[in-house]
Design goal:
With about 90 residues, this protein is of the alpha+beta class. A three-stranded antiparallel β-sheet has the order 3-4-5, covered by helices on one side. Strands 1-2 form a two-stranded antiparallel ribbon. The chain has one domain: OB fold (Dihydrolipoamide Acetyltransferase, E2P), CATH 2.40.50. It is built from two helices and five strands; from the N terminus they run αβββββα. The mean pLDDT is about 80. It is elongated and about 70 Å long. About 5% of the residues are buried.
Length: about 90
């Protein structure tokens, strides 16, 4: 009975570990989301519904700024003055 309990416990641990991964890889996005960025013309602030700032880190060496608008999502160039002012508001 003890061997069955230990085997069942190990099976549950292994199953939980496999469910937390996708095809043996962690479910962490390990790449940049923004391949291209929008610089000009500036997007009016009233057109932006949500501004998401993703700091540089292990997943991407660049800071990423993603603007969600009614017509879709656009990555913004974080070095543009108008984008910097959007972040500060």
């Amino acid at each position: 009975m003890m061997k069955f309990t230990i085997t069942a416990f190990v099976f549950l641990i292994c199953t939980a570990a496999l469910l937390s991964t996708t095809e043996g890889k962690p479910r962490i996005n390990m790449r940049c989301r923004c391949i291209q960025t929008h610089s000009n013309p500036p997007i009016p602030i009233d057109k932006i519904l949500l501004l998401k700032v993703i700091p540089a880190g292990p997943q991407c060496k660049n800071e990423e700024i993603i603007a969600t608008m009614k017509k879709g999502v656009t990555c913004l160039n974080p070095s543009e003055d108008w984008v910097i002012s959007l972040k500060e508001e």
